[in-house]
Amino acid sequence: MQKSDPQFSDFIRPVCETYDSVNRPDKITSVSIVFASGHFDNPSSYYGHQMLKFNYGDDVLDQPTLDASLNYGANNTDNPGPLYIIRGVFGGYEAQYKRNNEFLNTHSYTNVQVRDVWEYTLDLTPEQRTFIVEHSWEVMRAKFSYYFFNDNCAHRIARLVENATGRDLTNVSGFWLLPTQVIRQMDNKGSTTLVKGETYVPSLKTVFSKRYAQLSGNQKEQLQAYLEAENDMRKASVLQIDAAVLFGLLDYYDLELAKLKEDQEKAEQMRDIHQQRSIILAEMLRRPASAMQREPLQPIEVQPLPDTRQPSSVRLESGVHDGNAFGRLTVRAANNDMLDAPITGQEVSKFIMGAAQLEYGDTDLSLRKVVALDIVNFNTNPLPILLTREYSWGFRMDYSPRNELCAECRSAGVEGTIGRAIRVDDEVLVYGLGGGRVHTKENDTGSYANLVVQVGSVMNVTRMMNVQLEGRYTQSIKSEDMSLQMETRHVLGKRVDLRATAVTNGDEHSLSAGLAWHFD
Q: Is the pTM here over 0.85, yes or no?
């Protein structure tokens, strides 16, 4: 079957019936870029995920819940972890585009993987919109090698928009590209923006945290007492608790189910949670409808993604260590540490992929530190720590000193820790982690392994200033040492911050301060 295209009078355009019936291109009214924040069950996802969304007109049945999306990602069945990241960095996975139902896709991110979602509607001409829709169909069967840094979802989705608009969305300083960098390029205030609308969809965890904060002190005690009670006591106690607490418990169990849905080994736990949900639902249905009116969710303060800090940095600092002056130059490729402000819906954390530090002291210039990967996931919950199953953990692969005061004890190694973290309030987080480090031989101790314990706190002093306190204890067969470090961050501008650090072990002391410039 053929029909004439009015744009090309001398060209007979073939018609693909499958394309027309599946895509319904004449019904697509706009195209959006969707950003899903990271989730910590999969550390490689921390910088988020990007996809295209095709929005259909209101005259199409069941829209907009059935809008289509185009995903790009690696085809793999490996469990998330350090090896997963390494294979992703070096092209160890095959990747391709995939078309999804947007309602199901968004539900998967917010209610299964527990990730916040932002949608940016693009300001396109009809010709540009048609180009993106048609070209996305053309690439559906193509297969590529997936590279975490420089051929990922951000690259592939951005290139579809670049080809249609002529706008450079991948113009960044490094060889890496993150989804938030593409969002900033789209919304570049120095040129015509491609964004004409923004929608934010919070995850189950964000909603639960917000609703829990809205409960009164007595209601929080009721919720906590119910979760602490034995199963046979809950059917009786549920009769006495407030309606707002019933809704809160339902949110809690929905969140617990979301964490277990992709783990086939947790079927028994899932059955138990479904039973607990049934108790809550039965009580909610028993009460009069007038008594079960839920308080509206208070507005969630959302920081626009284009205003988030750029991922790369160069830091120049100077300091003194027991009377000896030094200078340091630190370069980070893709980084976020405990003093950086996280995006909406994400907890304070550390995720550094690629960093190096040079130090100049006396007359020597040396390579002090190289970081391949450094992750700390606090994974907090608004509930008291005894009521939550969420664990904090850390993983580091680097060449670095044992602590910030030990200049001669550098080694290459791998470190793993696990522990717990809890928010005292919105401004204060405390944590404790313990584990070990396996490394090359340290000259000062002759050891190949250390026991590691870290205890600390992260505090937001003001909107522009935060502080981290951390005590670090290490022990090998032959020696042990302990240090205490305080680091402060002062935001001086969107791209500039000032850091000051003090470290002591009781005998030695170090003070330093420096400026960092952040860039895409």
A: no
